[in-house]
Amino acid sequence: MSSLVCLHAHPDDEALLTAGTLARAVAEGHRVTLVVATDGEAGLADTGPGGLLAARRVTELERSAAALGVHRLVRLGYPDSGMQGEHGGFAALPVDEPAARLAALLDEERADLLIGYDRNGGYGHPDHRQVHQVARRARELAAARPLLREATVDRTQLVRALRLLEVSRLAPADFRADRMRQAFAGRHEITHRIDVRGFLAAKRAAMRAHASQAAGGADTRTLAYCLRLPGPLFRLAFGVEWFIDPDAPAGGAVSSSLF
């Protein structure tokens, strides 16, 4: 049995990016620890930002973790920075402070594998970019010296899908391909492609747990739109999860196993 520690920025990020991989790792007998940096109190929701939203999102996170079967959930409790970093918070911290806490956890869990984010922080949220830096630094600080995999999305496939939705007028106006041209990772950067089609029920359950993130704000929320996809389209959209090994050369063979 291996020990996997997965760092995310906010509640619901785990559901969208890595839920299938985490559920698969649990099913394969690995120990899985989910770490979330903030409680997401600055996120968009119908209840408005603040402490009440944070409490609601923590409950949702616990339900998501239960749906995935993770063995341990750790909340670091840093303030949510907001979409533009307007609240300071996690993104404004010196990297070594959260990295030292994560490194201590890696050693406590005797982690074999750490999951962080790609260098773009996915779609670029300041807290997501901070996760990228914190995971890399924590790995350096940890005595455990785990492997590092950075969660991402195949940008080529994502842009193609969004273009198709635009042409067919099946997506809201804010789901535009041009918004993602610098997001996530190019196909040549991806080193791991994980088949999670057998764990989509757990992934959908984790996404559904984050009900507060299916509403709020002027735009249609990504989570709400994804949950409305019928089974075949959901399987096509979420049947694979992508990762980068920062130690591997770009453009090499793509692995089907994180370990």
Terminus-to-terminus distance: 11 Å
Helicity range of the residues? Answer: 25-40%
Helix run count: 9
List low-pLDDT spans: none
Number of strands: 7
The CATH class is Alpha Beta
How would you spell out the order of helices and strands? Answer: EHHEHEHEHEHEHHHE
Q: Helix/strand/pairing class, anyone?
A: alpha/beta
Explain what the structure shows.
By secondary structure, the protein is an alpha/beta fold. It has a single domain (3-244), classed as Rossmann fold (3-Layer(aba) Sandwich), CATH 3.40.50.10320. It has 9 helices and 7 strands; from the N terminus they run βααβαβαβαβαβαααβ. The protein has helices at 13-17, 19-27, 51-68, 96-108, 126-141, 155-168, 200-209, 222-227, 231-238; strands spanning 3-8, 31-38, 72-78, 113-117, 147-152, 192-195, 240-244. Strands 3-2-1-4-5-7-6 form a 7-stranded mixed sheet, sandwiched between helices. α3 (51-68) packs antiparallel against α7 and α4 packs across α5 (126-141). The longest helix is centred in the N-terminal third of the chain and has 18 residues, at 51-68. The chain is globular.
